[in-house]
Amino acid sequence: MKTKLILLLTLLIAVTISCKKQEEKQPELSPSTLSMVNKARALAEPPATWQEHWFEHVQLLNKVFSDTSVAVYFDNDVSRTITWPNTYLAQVWNYTKQKYGSFGTDSRLFVILHTGRYGGGHPSTYMDASHDYRNVIDCGSNSTTAWLSGTGNDLDLTTHEVGHIVELASKNIQGSPAFNIWHDSKFMELYIYDVYQGLGRTADAQRWYNLVLGNSDTYPRANSHWFKDFWYPIYTQQGNPASINNYFTLLSLYFPTQTVSNGITNISKYSRDLNFGEFVHFWSGATGIDLTPLALTAFGNLDEQGNDWLAQLQQAKLTFPALVYSKDITSQGAVTVSNENSGGASATEGSSKLIDRLYNTKFFLAAFPTSFWAEVTFPGAMVSRKYTITSGNDSPDRDPKNWKLLGSNDGSNFVQLDLRSGETFAARNQTKIYTFNNSTAYKYYRLSITASNGSADLQLSEWRLLQ
Fold it and tell me: Whole-model pTM?
């Protein structure tokens, strides 16, 4: 067994060297030989040293730690007292694999840290010859005291680079069709928040939330707030982060790919980029909810090049018909309430905030009566089979607890469509989806809330009706 493994490792080293030397056409191994090479790589202990040969990087790296989850390399200037990457990045990598599946046959993430040079970071994946077919994050800092704290930006920067591996190789398909839309950092706002939540690092999750909530970008239009107006509502719509994985799964199933050689084998690669309409279509499929109203509020109707993405969306529905989701019809109606906020409907916490498609606003009513109701009136009768309610930003005792959903076509005689009692919301600005049996079109939909979770006051961020 040892002799066989040594032979396989020798073959692997030879292949790696040839990949470094040949940039255009690289040798391709037979399936049986490739299987043996992959098995050898998975079993092999990461090398003690590793010579950089990418971009402007020329450092000789030294392995300071490895296990089955990570292999950590420092250049000579990184303090050997730094050990937090050994555990933290192992946790990040294991969570990532648990959520998105395997990233090649080697179970490890290769972590490279530099001090006093190469400010910033970059990733590489097991599909790429550039970093010897390894999942790599290479992070540098111009500071001579870099990486000592293992907190704050140290965590954010390294986690950011792991997120690029996700978008570049999730579901074992190379490429990021959405990179032209979300650029370098917008997906990372969502990914990093999810990692901190998934690892139970609530303080870091809150720190990151506070850091990115106010971020403003120029794409696809000026003053675009990706996290506040798009990612965070998506993240909370199902009460869990499943929609992120669903997005990559749907891409792998339906978005066009091509077969290419990466130097040692054939791999699948996305053959083109998403347009913005397709982007909204795939994310709607991932969440199960039509995100068109949310995307319009967050970004307007034009993509970064000035094209109307609503037309692209209609074509995307024809091109990718397997993606199905509930249509949000709320914005076609108008909202009224039996009891209004003291400042009026258009006040900061007035009833208009109930259906404004913004998940960081809310409707608030002090000392609400048990006869309170909110009502959406449509120009004509429409069928709804689902609705969502989003909790407010604070005071869980103000969340709605008991309510009825009613339907009417004359505004006077109502039919009960759904009844809920004892409802609670585990998080602030959490959206919960409720499904009910209905095939009748109604012009009026009334939400009658009879109790909160203990407070004399009532608040909710959003109420949406879905087909």
Answer: 0.81
